[in-house]
Each structure stands twice: as structure tokens, then as C-alpha cells.
Design goal:
heterotrimer; A alpha+beta; B mainly alpha; C alpha/beta; A: alpha+beta; Rossmann fold; OB fold (Dihydrolipoamide Acetyltransferase, E2P); 2 domains; six-stranded mixed beta sheet; 26% helix; B: mainly alpha; MetI-like fold; two-stranded antiparallel sheet; 2 strands; 1% strand
Amino acid sequence: MLRVEDIYKDYDGKPLLKGITFEVQEGELVCLLGSSGSGKSTMLRIIAGLEEPKSGKVYWKGEDFTDKPTHERGFGLMFQDYALFPHRSVAENIAFGLRMVGRSKPEIDSLVEKSLANIRMQEFADRPVTELSGGEQQRVALARALAPDPYLLMLDEPLGALDHNLRTELLKDLRKRLHDSQKPVIYVTHDQEEAFALADRLLLLHDGKLVQEGAPERVFNQPANTWVASFLGLGNLVPAKLISPNRVETDLGQLEVPIAPEIEPGSDCVMLLRPDDALFGENAISLSNYLRAVIRDSVFLGNYFRLEVMVGQTILQVHSPHPDAIGETISIAWPASSLQCLPVA
Amino acid sequence: MKRSGSLTWLLWLIPLVFLLFFFYQPLLAIFRQVFSERFNQGWQFFSWAQITRPLLFTLWQAFLSTLLTLIVGLPAAYLFARFEFAGRKWLHTLSLLPFILPTVVVATAFNTLIGPRGWLNLILMDLLNLSNPPVNLLNSLPAILLAHVFYNTSIIIRMVGNSLTRLNPHYDEAARVLNAKPWQAFREVSLPLLMPSILGASLLVFLFDFTSFGVVLMLGGPQYATVEVEIYTQAMSRFNLPMAGLLSMIQLVVTFLITLAQNRLKNPRFGKAVLSSEQKTRQQPVNMRQKIFVILMCLLLVVLFVSPILSLVSRSLVTFEAARGERGEFETGFTTRYYTELFQNRTGSIFYANPLAAIRNSLVYSVLTMLIATSLGLLSAYALSRSGKLTRWMEPFFMLPLGASAVILGLGFLITFNNPPWTSGRFPILIPIAHSLIALPFVVRTILPAIQGIPHSLREAARVMGAKPWKVIREIDLPILLRAVIVSLAFSFTISLGEFGASSFLANARTPTIPVTIFRYISQPGALNYGQALAMSTLLLLTSAAGSLLIEKIRLPGEELF
Amino acid sequence: MTKKHFLLLTLILFVLAACQPTTPTTPAAQPQTLTIMTHDSFSVSEELVRKFEAENNATLVFIQGGDAGSALNRLILTSVDTQTPEADVFYGLDNTFLSRALDQDLFEAYQPASLSAIPAEFKLDPTFKVVPIDYGDVCINYDKAWFAENNLELPASLQDLAKPEYSGLLVVENPATSSPGLAFMMATIAEFGETSWLEWWQAMKDNKVVVVSDWETAYYTNFSGSSGKGPQPMVVSYASSPAAELIYAETELSESPTASLVNPGMCWRQVEFAGILKNTPNRALAEKFIDFLLSKEFQEDVPMQMFVFPVLPEAILPEGFVLASQTPETVSSLDPALIAANRDIWVNDWTNLMLK
């Protein structure tokens, strides 16, 4: 339905977006994930028509929308700071978009009422928005964005301004609401938890380019490069050199890896060692990728202990079911099949 | 904070005493005098028309001037707040210049531009081969309006521009995403949010237009008299003192009402929600419509701000041959004679004022004014920054000197301070004091927002760390206020530099200021004197411009001038 | 720094700002200061002032209080009935305002010996509270070149000015705000009589006479004969203005580009007086200053400084001044008592007719 094609955008003379292309299908929730300053908000603004790309096109159902004025696109956008109109009441805020498309007064009234009921805020109708709490504002902002029934909904860090507890609570709510709306949604965030929880598909944006796209579990299992692995916090990253099709040389010693045909033997890569995949003690000794490690720190996290261990000069994180004492030397190993050799980003 | 009660009193006391002694006392004295039995013969000419005519005209022209100023100023504010273009900074600085120019200079400048022998007419006569000037703008309402727009556009640019810069752009964008056309987004969202600042700026412009004196006197001609001009005429020319007193009371009441209304507006209705954080709101014009807008606005502003000034400077450097019966033809030539002539006392007159001496006098008064007004303004602003019912009523009390007629105040000074040390012939100390009264409202308006803008958390943090109240002020407030204070210094400096009304009452022949000297040259016959007045005006312009540049250089981004 | 210090600093700042820098005081006996209130057109050679100051161990301070009317009004307002008048001497009272000053009882009588040399026609105050110093004739100036070029006859009388060929050619000053304007209005009253003078003004209004606030605007902005080169070739000014045009021309001229219309009934003579303020603490010095004003030295200084004529017949006039100045053979005049009774009413009537 939506297709952005080869979008370039400069900011202050520096390139911000360097050729972004992706599509959003009907009813699909796409998460645009990237660190702050990666240009993901700008991408939304270009789709909304608030900014013009330097080059590239935006298509909606095959129609070129690139030069279409914002108000004619029929897209919804929810800002990170919500941008609720401070001079209007809750109900008036929600009614705004409906008024602009020229709906009749009774129609607007009933839609606003329904919308308020949806977010369980009927009694707030006449309150000034400046008196709402952060969570309430978020709900009103979403209701306002959805009220005119946009073709496409975009959300720019909708939970970014809220504190952690509220976020977790609202995330569930938001997920349900977005799902119920059955609209294509582009959701911008820098928080991978949010992204994993919501997205049908992830788009990872780094340094002005899409570095990976795919279903959350696919991205999780097969990060495209070290930046993705590091950004998503997938595990330990250790520089390595491929010395044979299934062996690498690292600071930890030589490790056996699954054959990675896409990497030339003799070239550099980075090993991803996921904390959860580590085996300990006797399970470890039998494996070829067996390491001796000294425990530097141990934190109990309920289901497991998070250990910080030292192998030679390298510090690694592992998740262990056993309570081991700090300073103790233990055996760790990663099955060769669990290791991934990632290209340098 | 129990102890602050007594401190607040102290803060009030010094500026309060100053105002009571130097403003309200002479005002009261002069009112007693003009309404006394002795001068009541003026009542025989009393008619309501004498009040309603100037009052209605004043309100009418102030309304028109404000409207025109908004028509030019709002797009200009939008231009500066939203667009980035070559020469933007330069033009922005330039737009501040008119506000600090003395009325004598502005009136003279407009004369050289649109007067019968101004550039406009000279060029038209040359082009169209006419023998008479085709454009007759002087002594007309358009001339007054034009000068008022010239003067006050900068207020709109500053005040509305500031709010516009700080207005979160997401509001407008949110509206447009919600299907609002650009003009709908402006009408429904941006405009209501900007309204308090637009109204505030308009009221201030209206106030300035309402109390306008020099411009109306020099460009309006005898048919057009504002209340302020009528006060002057009634008191000094018609000797109808009760009428002058009555009119000046009316002017004070209107001023009081306007400042009161403005005070109401300042209550932040939408809280901090409107202030955007350091968001970049300016961008290069991208599409054709924006480019045309930027180009047209720049042209308009250049014509409005530059042409009168350029015209003044160029006329002071060009000589026109005296008429010799060759009408319509004139020889032009570059000359610095008007400047060199300034330094010669051709007739050996006692009233000859060496321009350097006049500049020195003006500078001495200005520096004194700067110190008095800023230190008093600082104290007043502190006192006013405490919230409370009293302060709300006190602010107009401090602002009232804005509405006091220069004639009435000048006369009040003369009858109140009629003995030594005030009457020392050598040094009229009353001049810097009178200038301070005029500058005080400006200073308070510059410093007060800065004080109110200091986050409470900062003070509390300092207090928690064990700092005493005064120490808090020194460690936290003063560094933050420093810039506002510097702006105030520069502001009161330039106000004093250009003030003419009160100075003309208080200066004597030995201690003329630059504006007084200009006026002296204008009042003497001969082309040479006229040229010298232009030259002197140019010198004053340069001195004021230096002050203006200083203000612009140190002004904090987002800091309000008023 | 403690709280106390800060307070002190603020206080010092305030005091510093408020106190005046003292100019170096002159040694020897403190000279006595004599304050002279005058109008904006007053001027005198610095050399003469210095000489007077030296001879009398005095400092003269001149205050210019606006045009002649304003200066007087200011003085009345600030100095009537007080023990501390704003000035010791007032210079520049003219015959149109004479009555107002005398009514307000502003001056103390002083009859200098030198007054005997002054022609009686100037001694309009029989009580000698004020004495005449100079006089000037308010006449219409015209632009010689303009009239030559347009082949237009000069108007021979005020009546002529109402003729259509002179439509829009004359600029006058508002008598309420300008002393030549007031003088010219007096001339019209003297010419047409108390009852019908306004009819002439009505005719002039219909004939597009231009009214401006002050002499400066009239002369520089509107008059075509001055450097302003305005649209009107005739202006109400002084009979001595053509001399000023000659003397102050940018390049040397052989004759003045302007001249005055001096036919009978067209000019009004302004006589300027000086007087000693009541309650002055410097009476003796003030008397000396009046004597000085009537001295031959000062009287001969008057023409070039103020472009008016000295009242002392024996004063010798500068050559350029004589060359371009015309003296009307007869000048209009009105009974001072009549002026006193009606001046404000006339001005009011004029304003109502011309400016509303």
C-alpha cells in the first residue's frame, strides 16, 4: 500500500537519509527502529508530507504522493510530545480532524463520544488538555490521530515521554488498540522491547540506511551485522578472523563455527556469543569451544544468574543457572551451532 | 521565606521613592498649578470638541497605525522566525534600528525621502520631467502612519517573532496532519496560541502610537494633533492650561488602562506547553511560494527600514545649489561641507554648539541615565517579580511614565525643582533623571521576564545547598540576568541619547544635547543650517546605531525585549 | 560577600549614578549667575557675552524656551508668584504677547537711562516693566525666480492674494503655534477690521492657502525660494529673511533669490522687549544686563545674529543686511489693549475656521 522509494534527505548540509526503500502492507504494523538521530522521525515526516525529501518518492496505492500537501494525504501522525492543542479541550482536540474534513456537527459529536469511550475518558471531554497526566495525554493523542479514520497511522515514539512502569502498562493497551484499528501502522521507536512486542516487521535504520528488515524473531535470530546485534543487545561481540571455512581465530582462542559461506576465509568478522546459549561445567568440557573463565561479578535475576566473566583479557556476559562465587574459575562453552559470524557493520 | 517580606519592602522602597519624588511629585505640582484660579481664563474656550477631537483622532490614528504595523510586522515576524536566508541576520539587526532612533532624526529622514524636495520627488520629477513635486505626503495622515509603521514594526517583529520561534512547530504540523489546510492550521491553532503575544505587542504599539509626539508634530502639520501634541499646543502656544491639564490626565488614564490590559495578557494561559525546546524552526525557503514570500518581504523591509536612513545620510553628503532661477534643474555634488561647517561658529554666536561638545553632553547624560535607570529597573523588576495582588497593580504604576506628556512633566520639573542643587546652570542633573523616568518602563520590561524566567528549581537547589537568599541572588540570578541587564544598559543609553521633549525643557544653552542641537540648526534659516541639521542627525544616527548593534549582539536567543 | 555588602554595593551604585560630576570651579570670587530666558531665535555673539561676564564677574546662562509665545508661557507657569523665578531676565517678549505678560504681573519696572535715545514708537509699555530691544517686520517673502518664470504679477495687497491666479501659492503659519503666524494674523485684522478679517481668511481657505505649524516647515519645506525648494512661491516670513538667504547662501550670490512684499497693509511690526523678573535675587546684575542690551555694541550685533533691526537709531547696520532687507514704509498696528482683550479669542476663531 505504502511504498517509499530511494529517499534521500540532508539536514544542515549533512546527509541524514541515504536511500531508504521499504513498503508497508495492508494491516501491517511496521516498526522503524534506530538510535536517536538516525533519521527515523524525519522518515515519518517525509511520509506525512511535513518535509520534502531531497530525492526519492512516496507512493500510496501506486499513486505518487511525494508532492501532495500534508492535509490531502489522509495519514495520521502522533507526535512524541503529542502536540495536543493547549487552547482546546479534550473533546475539541479529538474533534479537530473531523471538523477539518467537514463532517457534520452531530456526526462529530457521536464519533468523539465513541472515541472517548474507547479510551475510557468520557468524563474528561471538557477538560483542558493541559491538566491531563502523561498517560491520559497519550491516549487522547492516539484517539485524536485515529478519529478522522486515516489510511495510515504513524506514531513517533508514542511511549517515549512516559516513565517505565506506565510504559509497560500502556504498551499492552496500545498493542491491542493498534491491532483493533486494522490500519497499516508505522511505529517509530528506539526501544527494541517495544519494537519486538508490537511489530509484524522490523526496519532497522542506521547511519541513514536500512540495515535489516524482517519479522522480529528473524532479526533476533539472524542479525545482519554487528551494529544490529549490538543495538538489540543480543550478546557478546568478539572480533575474529576466519582462518578456515568453519574456524575463527579470536582473543579467546580458536573457535569452531558453522560454515559461513558469505564470508571469505582470511577476512575479519565479529563473533556473536549469546549469553543464553552458554553451557557450563560438564556440559561445556565436552565441546570444542571450551573456555576457562574467571567470575568477576554475579547478579541474581530470578530465573538465572547474570555472570560477568573474564577469559584472558576479554570480558563476557553469560547467563548461568548456577550460583557461582566471584573469583571462582569455571568452564564455559558455546556449541558451534549457536555461534554466528557477523560481518563488520 | 519569612524574611523575604522585609527584603521586598527594601526593593520596593528605592524605586518607589524615586518615582514618587521625581515623577508623581512634579506631576501633582503641575496639575495643581494648571488648575489654579490664576490660569482659569482658558475655561472660556472650553468645548467638548477640544477634548473629543484630539482624543478621537489619536485613537483613530493609533488604531490605523497599529493595524498597518501588524500588517507589515506579522509577516516580517514570520519571515524571521521561520526562514533562513542570506542576509537574515543583517536585516534582523536593521529592523531594530528604527526603534531607538530619535524622532527628530526620523522626521528629518522622512522629510529627505518623501518631502517636496525629498529623493522620491526629485527622482520622479527628473524621470517624468515635472516642474513640481508630484507626491505630497508631508503634513498628512499617511506620513504619520508611515513613520509609526517605521518605528514600531520592530516591536512586532521582536515580540511576536519570539513567540513564533518558541511556538512548538508540532502544533501546526499536527493540525495539518489532521487534514487542516495550511491557512486553517494557522487560523485554528497557531493564531490562537500566538494571540496573547500578538495582542500584547499590539497594545504596546498602540500605546506608543497613542502617545506619539515628535512624529506627529513634525510630519503631521497643523491639521493633525494627537492628544500629546494638543497638550503641547494648549499649554505652550494657546496658554490654555486647564485644557492642557485635562488632556494630559486623559492621556494618563488611557495609558494606565492599556498597561493594565497588557498586564492581564501576560498571564501565561497555556503554560510552558507552548514553549518548544531548542527546536530548529527556521529553514531555507523550499518551494516557489515561500521563495516569493521571502524575496518580497525582504524587499519591503529594506525599503521601509533602509530608504529613510539612506536618504538622510545621502542628503547630508550632497549639496543642492541655491535657486538661481533655474527651476527644476539642480546640480548635485558630493560634499562634506555640512560636516566641516558643524565645527565652525560662523557668527560667533553664544548658542553655537560644537558638535563634539553636544555629543559629549549627550554621552554624559546617557551614561548617567543608563546607570540610574538600570539599577532602579533591576530593583523594580525584582519587586514586581514577586507574585501577589499588589504587584499586579504596581506594574502600571511603574509603567505610567510612558504616558506622561513630556511638556507636562518638563513643566512639572521646572516648578518643583526650582532651587539649588537642581537649578545648577552648569550641570542640569534633571536631564538624566528625566531620561531615567522615560527609560525605566523599558528597563523593567526587559529585566522582569528574565527574572521570571529563572527556574525556581535553580534557586531551590542553591538554597538547599545552604546559600542565603542574597547569596542565591548573587550566585544564581545575577549571572543569568547579566545579559538582560546589558540590554537594559544599552537601551536606556540610546533612549537618553535620542530624547528631545524633556531635554528641550531642561537643557540650557551651555549644555545642549545632540537632538537639541539638531533642532537648533533646523530652526535657523539658510541651506547651510539645514545641511548641518542633516549632518548632525547622521552623527546621532551613527551613535544610536552603535548602541543598537550592541543590543543585538548580546541579546540572548529567545529572550524577550518587552 | 555578605548580604550587607551587597546592599551597600547597590546603594553605592545608586548614589554614584545619582550624583553629579562637579565641573572644576573657577577660582577667585564666585561669579554671580544670571539666567536669561529667551526664545529659540535668540542669538548673541559669544564675544560680547564673554566681555559682559568679565566686566561684571558674572556667568550668563541662557534658556531657550521654544518660540516667543512658548517661552513666555513657560516663564509665567514657572515663575509667577514664586520667590524663585526660573530666570532673572526675559528677552523676546513681543507686542502681540505684551499684554499677557503685563497681566500676569511677571516683571519689575526698570527705566534705564539709555532708553531716552530710543524712538517713542517702540516704547509700548508706559510702566517700563519691559523695554524695547529690537524689531522686525513680518511680511510675505516671495521666490523671485518663480514669479519671473511664470510671468505672474506680484500681489499688490492682501486682497489680491485671494485672486484665483494666486491659488495655492501662499503658505502661512498657524498663529496658535507660531509667532510670525500670529503677527501675520494681526496684520490681517488690522487691514480688514475686527469684524470682517475672517471673511478674508475664508476666501484664502477657498483659494487653497497652505497652513503649517511653524516657520521652519513653512520656510524650508513649503517655500520654493529656500533650500527646501517646496511647492509654494510665497511664505509668511520676515522682511529680513532675504538678507539671510544672501548671507547664508551655499555659494556666493550677487542678490538674494527672495524678496518681501512690503506694500501698505501687508506687514506687521514685531517689537521685542526684555524685562526683569519679579523677585529676582540678582536685581543689580539684571539691570546691568538690560543696559547691555541697549548698548550700541549689542544693538549692532542684533542684525547678524537674529536678522532683526535694533531699536537704537544710531546703531550701524552691516552692509549685506541693508542690501537685501526691505523696510515697509507703513506697517500695520493695533491698539495693545484691543490685542490684550481679543488675542485668545481671535486665535480660537482662526483655528475654528482654518483647521476644522
